[in-house]
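Hi support team,

I'm opening this ticket because the web form for multi-chain structure prediction keeps timing out on my end. I have pasted the exact lines I submitted so you can reproduce it. The total is 1442 residues across two entries, so I didn't expect it to be a heavy job. Is there a limit I'm missing, or should I split the entries? Thanks in advance, R.K.
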Amino acid sequence: MDGAFECIRECTYVEEADELNSLIGQAVANQGEQCAAGFPRFWQILQKYQEQSQLLDPHLDAFVTPLAGLLRAQAAAAQPSLLCIHTISSYLWTVASVRGYKTIVKFFPNEAADLEPVVALLVQLAAQGTAPSGGVESKGEGVWEAQCVLMLWLSQLVLIPFDLATVDTSLSNLAATDRMPEVPPVVQQILVLCRSYLASPGSIREMAALLVGRLLTRPDMAPALRQFLAWAHTALHSDGPEAVFVIPGAAHALAAIFKLGQRQWILPIAPVVWPAAAQLVRSPAAASNVLARKLAIKLVQRVGLTFLAPCLASWRYQRGHVSLTDTLARPTASGSLAAPSVAPAANGSPRPSGALLQAAHAAGSADDDAGEEVEVADEVEEVVEMLLVALRDKDTVVRWSAAKGLGRVTGRLPKELGDQVAESVLDTFAGAGESDTAWHGGCLALAELAQRGLLLPARLVATTPIIAQALQYDVRRGPHSVGAHVRDAAAYVCWAFARAYSADVMAGSIASLAPALLTTACYDREVNCRRAASAAFQESLGRQGTFPHGIDIVTAADYFTLSTRTQAYLTVAPYVAHFPEYQAALAEHLLHTKLRHWEQALRELTAKALAALVPTNLAFFATTAVDCLIPLCLDSVLEVRHGAGLGLGEVMLALHRHGQALSPERQAAVAGVVPAIEKARLYRGKGGELMRSAVCRLMECTALLALPLTPQQHIKLHDSIDENLRHPSASIQKAAAAALHAFSRSYLTVTSADNLKRTVHKYVAGLHDANVAIRRGYASALGALPKLLLQPTLRTVLDSLAGATQVEEDAEDRDAESRVCAVNALAAVALEVFGGAEGQGVQPVVVERIAPSLLAALDDYSTDNRGDVGSWVREAAMGALQRLLVLLARHSHGQEPVSSGMQPSSHEGEAASSSDIPAHSVVSAADQRAQLQGLTAQVTIALVKQAVERIARLREAAGRHLKTLLEVQPGLEGIPARSALEAAVLLEDVGSFATLEALPRLALLVVQEDYREAVLEGLAASIGGLDASLTRSASAALVQVLTATSPDGGQSSLLAAVASCLLAIWAHHARSPRMANPLLRTLDLLYSQTPLATLQPGSSDIPERVLDLVKAEVRQCRDIPRLCAAVNVLNHLAALPDPVRSAALQALLTLLLNNFPKVRKYTAEQLYVRVLSLEGDPSIDDAQADSLLDLLTETAWDGPLEVIRAARASLYAPLGLTQAAVPVRQPKAIGGADVRVARADENASYQSLIDNVERGGQ
Amino acid sequence: MGLLSIIKKVKQKEKEMRLLMVGLDNAGKTTIVKRINGEDITTISPTLGFNIKTMQFNGYRLNIWDVGGQKTLRSYWRNYYEQTDALLWVVDSADTRRLEDCRQELHSLLKEEKLAGASLLIFANKQDIAGALGTLDIEKALDLQAMGSRHWRIVGCSAVTGAGLLDGFEWVVADIRSRIFLLD
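Hello R.K., no limit was hit. The queue was backed up. Here is the completed structure from your submission:
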């Protein structure tokens, strides 16, 4: 419900009023016929106002009156149109259900004459409902709405102030001497209807209950009431299959009678109904039926109220309300305006009558009680008892009903009893074993009592701690916890208290409620609880006077700022905590409650939030908090030790950042935590992974602080990091790498042989381990090491990593994630070693040792059962290349030509710190520059290709990197056709690369020779992709570039260049499972949508080259989509002049004998189209063409091959071909696949399967 | 049903109206609130923070939020827990120098989306002081004709004597009723 509250846009008026009016106008004008079409729209508009239905009020008259008028006309008609009534009722009931029937019914006509026709109509509808045929008009739509609306109307009509006997026409025929029946027949009819509807599900039951309540509480209905009670008694005890409906119905009707009836009228029947009501509450029927239970509680409550005199308890607490009219006597003619100063005493003091009621404390009204002499029936005690029990009910609706009832009943009790009720409600919280439902019900009841002034101020002292506790109520249940509803209800109590009590009464409670409210506002897991607490705080502040810093807090912690958990935890809470009054409460809550929360993400956030609180009280965190957390790291409960580990790390880091050192004892204690965790074997078993990541972070923080370690601890920590580096989980590896990053910088500060052995050598050796986890982890580890350790064996490191970026030879060994780690590490190592100010010699290393493997990684299109896993490698490689280029650009500017070899490191010059990279000969500055430009061009072109490829994520990454490269300062040299690229890239938002909006601009780069191949290859991959919208966009982009008229008329030369480029790509990717189909489809596209066909065989070699390549693709191909694409291209080629035409036709005729029936059929269809287009062609006469067409259509091409072969033979001559003496192969069963081909095309077969599915099977 | 929906429901059931009392500092907002609340108005210091006062009027319960003269208390009128039904903008009619400030503040406040539907009552306060501008002059100075479709009314009043206050409240309550409690 809260969700709806938030997401529905608040309106201030009904925007569609005119439309609604016209829809209703149509319905009325058509007499309800043929207007069913307008109804869905009507319904849809009104749903919008579900949450703000009062906005409809100005229009209700215009909506309801005409509809109700039509209904009345129909009811009065001799032959009412049921269809019309159904339709009209649908409209009316929609309005009623949105705005509430009580409001709507006021607009219904209210004349005694309508009573009988409405009853008659209802009887008719009921009869129709039971008759299975249902009549011709009835389509079942609007039937129940019609019943509801008519019953609602009837509930209004029965209020007519005449004796119902007088309006009953059936009675007017009676002679004066006849005895009048006890109950008029019309009433009997109504009651029969009601009884049947009370036993049916749905809204009609509610209407029936309302009608019964209205009708039977009339003073002239005593006999009817007796009858009904007898029925109800039976109904409440029924146990047939209908019991589930009839029991709530009867209870509802009785509750309505007791609610609507005047007390003296229903008091006599209360003792009659009471036993049944009490019995119902305890009955098994109610136990299993929420609605029955709720209505039973409602009935009990109403009967209970009847037992009590309807008086407002004089003992209740009243804050006092001021009436404006009293305080502002209308200025008289004498005009107080003239009088500049008025004695404040005259205006300011309350009048004797007590316009300003001071809080009437219980003590002051004791005398009234004595005079009250209230007799409380024995049943009342039972009523209260039942309501108190129902407060603990497992269903919210029942608890709500009980809380309301308790408020109402208590309001009529004498002081002593009333106060006892309050005490009992407080007892609801007392038991340690009380469930969350008891807490929730208790909160609701407290709020209800407080609003009615029935919770006396004296009880507030005892109540406050309970509410403060309820505000934090959170009880673990299995893998999650319950309590959000309790916390929200507790905020409701606070809100109600703020409104109910005067500031001096609340003063004592505020001090403990305010920190609790703010804790919930900042740190609750649920957004509705945070907002509820904030709303309650605001209300308290406004009504209860000043909290410390209340204004600032209300401004900072409002509805919006608390809407996201992260912001509430990391921004709002630290602000609130910087006021000392609230600091302790917030910090303690995090330490003792939230850090052990059941949700992992929340514990992680809590650790950060704790760090954010550190500056508010350094001393507390450096002592108490750390002392509290250290032992918790070894706690037996997983959540506790995980949270504590995370929290400890973050707190220490934050303390360090704020210059607060830990005492040496505590430093030692923290250093001992990780070894202790390992010793306690907390890495193992359930939750071990969770602990690992927490411990990694703790080690990282320990290292960042450079806490002193004993030699054993040093070894333990390093071992622990290595172990976690080898862990299969990527997140743990990442955390371990981060820990290593800090650890190596703090503790491995010398380039000793031992350190090298323990790090670089070990990690390099692991790069080709059979265990992929080790490969991934150790590659990441190399990327995390400091220059100091990398330098001595830089060449080995780089070469090993470079090797690890390439697709492994042995398919068994392949692991994309390892390659991703290696790619990232390669860039990280280079940035670490050369990223410093000097960075000498970076360029040759990058150009010779790093870039080639990264560029090769950009061609990693490997796939496995997860799909295009190579894309992860490509993505990483793009980022790595971009970072390296930026680094190179930085160093190339203003640098002297230097020996490109590794200089011995400037410091020390020891052998250990020098690199193993051999010195190069001095390279001239010009050569260096050219080298860098060459690399830049390669990278840019590769990025452009990725920017038009199939995967949105990669397009976006490529776009982002291109932007970076274009914008880097000082500018990069060597970007080919820079201005064209800038035009394509810089104008676009990064997101538009992913959403394809950037595609047309990028496709324009085809014009640039440098980018032509890259763009074509990328676009071809996109055109042949699985995603239909991608295919469409890519095709459109390419066609547009190639068909746009250029000013220099170079279109045909561009087309030729593009075609020949495409063929070059094809030659490169010949028979590639990934590219063959895309390239065929691209050619098909170019032939069908661009003037590619103008490149004729004589003047250009393109068609012949295409033909050769297509024929090569078709040979032994087992991929149906690819074969079909080839057919398309061949078909285009067949339209060209000879010799290409004959060769293409020959190839097509060969395909007519393909092993796949689908391919044969497709080829025949395409040929048919081709022949059709030949009509009028001189090369073929009409008769021949006709016979060809007949042959093509009449042969079952997907049938047996023998038949087809004969049919095909007769195609040669008409097409002007001769059948080559091809050795006819024996047709094979499709299952007996050519094993050799199948292996080569391992992925393609899977690919074709997908293709087929995606395109709905061509 | 959480607290936020309870608040909405209570507001409708109890026929509550939320009135926001705003204006430049020293305009007399708190004096008006105290005056209608029947409290002593001889000693009033600048309001820090805000007060919510509840009053009965014509069968409605008015929750009057007296927000100090501080400019930055956005969160009061940007209150998403409840709808603001009316703005009571209080003007010091005798302080002609600050009328331009007053106009700017008012118009920037009214741009707030959350206040789009709220009725606007302008209290031209301190009419009892000699030299105070009349309502017509203030209407012009505040450029009230530019309000467009908003329901607004300017009423001259004196918080000290109480003159005009009832008129103002009568109008604003009637106006709100015509919008949101039409049928009660």
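A quick check on our side: Chain B touches chain A through 61 residues (CB under 8 Å). Let us know if the file doesn't open in your viewer.
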